[in-house]
Design a protein that fits this description.
- The protein has 403 residues and is an alpha+beta fold.
- Helix content is 46%, strand content 21%.
- It is built from 15 helices and ten strands.
- Strand 9 and strand 10 form a beta hairpin.
- The longest helix is centred in the C-terminal third of the chain and has 25 residues.
- The radius of gyration is 24 Å and the shape is elongated.
- The chain starts with 13 loop residues before the first strand and ends with a helix.
- About 3% of the residues have low confidence.
- Bound molecules: (R)-mevalonate.
Length: 403
């Protein structure tokens, strides 16, 4: 059983994002989401991205931060020096998982930060930097923080308060990039050059304005969360980290960068998304939820047999072959970044042209037609009629069905 006081299950649709070409490899993307248009949007943007050779991605090592809050420290500078001088001893004490360290993971370093002026007085904050390999790492980080706290108290002469991971996992980031020729955006109603300019302007709006940035980033998370949910990952943790990252310079901004490159017939749209992505392919719900296992299988990232904290995390940034060959958590993060970028592209493209309601209305009309009892080819016909009449109601759909 995964949680307490269970009275039932709450199922979501599981869709497949299509057309994804990531680092030269094709992917089918499992997406668990209740919102219409998300899977379709990601798939159509991924098709556009193919015109530019698909997405390229990368990621940092899978390191998390565990925080230990130290209070009542008499001399902060002296305590900081003493803690840093005892780094090896503290790391050994925090090294609670032999299997993780066997695979090259485990505690790697220490940082000490001083918060001289909080509401309740000064605090010293110790960060344990922990390589979690293919685990999301919440358990590894929390266990390490709790194990090392008594020694840190002893060394600093302080009192340990909180011992918990930070969800601002800014050392554990993934990114995706894409560059698409303007011509790929040409349609009967809009020239591609006009569309990509509109997308760059939309991005600039979200970089400058937190009100727009929140909506812009929400659109990114339509895709990101759908994959996280499908693969049994903690999407609240990723959201919290990414939103904090989006405000890292003091103002909340877009997580993406989109701009026009080149000129004339050679214009392209360049896009990039980078965000903290603490995800796992072992442990937690990734392992205990049967559908999450299937989702990882669909992605080609499944873990066979017993929990495995893979050593297959290698591949330097820029080495597309090695990156595409990765399995495990880093690869999942990179794929998720590509989906987030695609989702954002789909939204900005619609917003910069016809607006999003047109597409939404068609889906809504289809749902209404189905709710009225339409099946097969009648669904499209009745949805089309409802849209033409400008009245999307089940009662009218029923009348049309009778006719
Ligand atoms: C709706 O779920 C997401 C959008 O609002 C995102 C955006 O505005 O960029 C369409």
């Amino acid at each position: 059983m995964m949680v307490e006081n269970v009275v039932g299950r709450f199922a979501l649709p599981l869709g497949i994002g299509a057309n994804f070409l990531i680092d030269g490899r094709d992917y089918l993307i499992p997406m668990a989401v209740e919102e219409p248009s998300v899977v379709a949007g990601a798939s159509s943007a991924a098709l556009l991205a193919r015109a530019g050779g698909g997405f390229t991605t990368g990621s940092t090592e899978p390191v998390m931060i565990a925080q230990i809050q130290l209070l009542d420290v008499a001399d902060a500078s002296q305590a900081k020096r003493a803690i840093l001088a005892s780094q090896e001893k503290i790391l050994a004490c925090a090294n609670t998982s032999p299997s993780l360290s066997q695979l090259g993971g485990g505690p790697q370093g220490i940082e000490v930060r001083c918060l001289p002026d909080t509401e309740t007085g000064p605090m010293l904050i110790v960060h344990l930097i922990i390589d979690c390999r293919d685990a999301m790492g919440a358990n590894a980080a929390n266990t390490a923080a709790e194990a090392a706290a008594p020694l840190i108290e002893q060394i600093s002469g302080g009192r340990a308060g909180l011992r918990i991971l930070s969800n601002l996992s800014d050392r554990r980031r993934a990114w995706a990039e894409v560059e698409i020729p303007a011509g790929a955006f040409d349609s009967d109603d809009y020239s591609g050059r006009r569309v990509i300019r509109g997308i760059a302007e939309a991005n600039a709006f979200a970089v400058a304005d937190p009100y727009r940035a929140a909506t812009h980033n929400k659109g990114i998370f339509n895709g990101v969360d759908a994959v996280l949910l499908a693969t049994g990952n903690d999407w609240r943790a990723v959201e919290a980290g990414a939103h904090a990252w989006a405000a890292r310079d003091g103002q909340y901004r877009a997580l993406t960068d989109w701009h026009v490159r080149g000129c004339g017939d050679f214009e392209t749209l360049y896009g990039r998304l980078e965000l903290p992505l603490a995800v796992g392919t072992v442990g937690g719900a990734t392992r205990s939820h049967a559908s999450a296992q299937i989702a990882l299988k669909i992605l080609g990232l499944e873990v066979d047999g017993e929990d495995r904290l893979s050593t297959e995390n290698g591949g330097s940034a820029g080495d597309a072959g090695a990156i595409a060959d990765r399995r495990g958590a880093r690869r999942l993060g990179e794929v998720v970044a590509a989906v987030g970028l695609a989702q954002n592209l789909a939204a900005l493209r619609a917003l910069a042209t016809t607006g999003i309601q047109k597409g939404h209305m068609r889906l809504h009309a289809r749902q209404v037609a189905v709710a009225a009892g339409a099946v097969g080819e009648a669904v499209e016909r009745i949805a089309g009629q409802l849209i033409a009449e400008g009245s999307i109601r089940v009662a009218r759909a029923k009348e049309l069905l009778l006719k």
